[in-house]
Design goal:
Rossmann fold; alpha/beta; six-stranded mixed sheet; binds adenosine monophosphate
Length: 146
């Protein structure tokens, strides 16, 4: 039985498939569910936020506000308490695996796209997490039409 599941959400159009799978497994295992979103595409503002954004803070950065709303909306929909919603600056594979270790996660649920050519050589978040994770990883296959 898994006890603590971490869902990695990038809020792309495929997120609902990964969310559905994480919800299902957490329910089956009666496991605690946490959610992480890594801020890898917006510049870190010159403020004292730190690399882990407290969701209780009032934020003055517009992009950051939107990411926070998206994470809180997902957290509410999944019934994930606010102290298990993580908004972190950094590189997704590193932050996801570090958080999993710190929080005693025993299953990471992540999306995985089929890759070819150069994209395959460069690697993906899913393969990075798979190679560095301290626990099991469920890579939910995302197809083109998903
Ligand atoms: P990618 O390989 O980057 O297309 O992403 C595959 C999966 O990695 C996504 O479906 C998410 O589960 C996870 N992921 C990618 N980027 C992030 C991010 N910034 N924060 C959290 N999870 C992410």
């Amino acid at each position: 039985m898994y006890q603590h599941i971490l869902l990695a959400a990038d809020f792309s159009e495929n997120t609902e498939f990964i969310v559905a799978r994480a919800r299902e497994i957490a329910h089956q295992h009666m496991a605690k569910l946490s959610v992480v979103h890594v801020l890898d595409n917006i510049p870190m503002p010159d403020t004292s936020y730190g690399t882990i954004i407290s969701l209780g803070d009032e934020l003055d950065n517009q992009q950051l506000k939107q990411e926070k709303i998206a994470l809180n909306t997902l957290g509410e929909a999944l019934g994930v308490p606010s102290n298990q919603r993580w908004l972190i600056w950094g590189t997704p594979k590193e932050e996801i695996t570090t958080l999993a270790l710190q929080e005693g996660v025993d299953l990471i649920v992540i999306g995985s796209h089929a890759r070819h050519g150069l994209a395959l050589l460069l690697g993906s978040t899913a393969s990075g997490v798979l190679h560095h994770a301290p626990c099991d990883v469920l890579a939910v296959r995302l197809h083109q039409e998903n």
